[in-house]
Amino acid sequence: MNQDEHTNPQTNSKVKSVVVISTAMLTFITFWKAAAIVLCDFGSSAFYAGGIAYKAFGPAFPWYIMAVSLFSGLLLMMYLESCSMFTRSGVFPVVSAGLGEKAAQLAASALLFDMALTGPISGLSAGNYLIGLVNSTLATFHINFAFNPEFFSMLFAAAVVIYFWYQNVKGIQDSSEKSAKIIKLSLVICGILFAWSALTLALRGTVNLPPLKPQLTKEAMGWAANIPFMQKVGYIGVLIALGHSVLALSGLETLAQVFRELEYPKIQNLKKTSMIIFVFAVVFTGGLTFLASLIIAPQDMAKYSDNLISGLAMSLSGPSFLKLLLQAAVVFAGGLMLCGAVNTSIIGANGTMNRIAESGILTDWFRKIHKKYGTTYHIINTICITQLIVIFLSRGHVYLIGQAYAFGVLWSFVFEMVSIVVLRFTNREQKREFKMPFNIKFDHFYIPVGAIFVGLVVVALAGINLLTKKIATISGVSFGLILFLIFHISGRLNAKKANIMFEEGPREKLNEKQVPDLSAALTNLPYKENVIVTVKNADNLYHFEKVLTDYKDREMNIIVLYVRPLDNWNAGKDRAVVSVDYKELFTQVILKAENFGRQVYPIMLNSNDFFAAAAQTAFAAKAQKIVMGVSGTYGANEQMEYMVMAWAALPDKYPITAEILWPGREVSFKF
Amino acid sequence: MEQEEVYKAILKREQGISTTLDTGLSIPHARLEGLDSFKAAVAVLPQGIKDDFGLQIRVVFLFLSPSGEQYFPEHLKLLAKLAETFTTTFIDEICQLKSPKDIAAKLPF
Question: Which domains does chain B possess?
């Protein structure tokens, strides 16, 4: 018998068919790449937040953008705590646990409203920067013509959304690599801007710091303009100004979305990710906005409010052509980052909708998997159509979307932060690898002062924004209610299934691809070493967890094998073939792999002989080890005997180790 | 050691997963207390008999091993050696042999 006969089920009676199991979330990334993904969304607000804040309350805007950037550090710590409790973190699971499912639906609606606007505002900003560059170039060459920024931005934003719609339906491969390149480029340009700005300020000799006091326009006051005590610009004014600056925080939810993809050790890596994001937010968003306010002449501020960082580049001291080159670099990096944010908003909304669907609230129509690409294309279509509608309704005005913008991000923060505080009291026993600092011991428990403070700040900001940002309140409440209604109706239609899912826990949406033979299932594995872990019972995965722990730092492919019994299963006399819910089994496998941040390769074989199938898989993979859980039916020694016989019966075999693991004991044999 | 006791131990093991390989080798075996060495017997059935799964058994290699944990690796090695040695070709060859003495000489033990 040659090797083909062993790996090809067509010629071997023991393996009848081979199915490769995959989901969209089985690859894990480094902390740097995770930070880059978040920053492509979160950091991109640097390109428009300052300009929108300037329009709302005048020259004091950099102080408030900086304050909000610093506040992001506290929010990041809250996210760290929530991620340490939930691998599949984010608004929906956290609020579900803390405040219940209805509150979670409201929170998710708010977040989806934010994401529905993030794509358009980022796309329009990118368009504004691009057309700003074109118009600057025309002016530099004394060509008396300028494109209409709103119209161009609208077309550009629509094109970007359509492009990323197509990419997401196809399933974007390793977008983290691209994000990392964009962030590196942005950092280089940021460095040039800082250096050149320092030189410019030194040449000017004097630095006039912007005023602290916001000049709130009637429009920025919203309904509060009719409330006498709110018109005094004191603490309330500061809160209103902060409320208008809060859009700089949009994109933090992406951190929770990427957490499940973060590699081992997850929490330590999340801390590093958060630190990078925080420093970037303060330096890039806060710092560049501040520099823009110091360097752009007051009379030019209105002109550059839609492309503030370009304005900074063009206002520096130096030759025009060099400034134009720098502006081009800003537009290039900013354009990539803003377009990346469009993509992230689609990915984020898709992820959030999937979390909701996993709980059974959404009907299966939403989770329908694309036949060719394996993506949840109905959800992606819905998100992109919504974003296109927003783009065309805005008619290209960034400020209009900016006015509506902060509602979603703030209310999703409110629900999430309050949930984290509530969980401190209701779920005290749950392990948290990280806790928001400032906890005061009282009697037998700790009062989470730090978490309560953050919760109160976001509640105050959300409350004030309700009154001051009329467009945000009207559009946000309307959008939120429509979504909530969709969730409610869909939940009712799906009630029976949702109850089953509630009882059984969420199911991973699995892609099952039948391949011609074992070799085809085992191609493109990243490492040379392989371990086969056989699984059968979703409640008996001790051995799988042990492998994840023991090989956490080893470059080894972990191939998880389930052998689905055929009718003539060699199970022993008088023993029925045990039917296993393999979807539940693989869901548990994937969840455990995610918790560890380790990539695994699940495959399923249809066979009438478990041990022969396991041996053939190990042989085809050239595995160094086969790891099994103990069988309650046969016992470890009997399992080992048969594994030995199955392996020994293979031709051209090589030394391999078989291990049977169960709590407190193991049987190991090298043969 | 009582014959009945040995018979029951082997039968009990066979209630688990069948010890018959695709090649036509059946390896009924048991680990017994009180033994201090391995014991084996071979039966060659040129015409073969069918097991419950339809496999044609042509060689039965029955062995008994001591139950102590220290003997278990040796027990596994013997199983491996048997599965490795008794290929279809090898079984074909010993089925051609006429005397037990020739068969014993052919075995690699």
Answer: 3-106 (3.40.930.10)
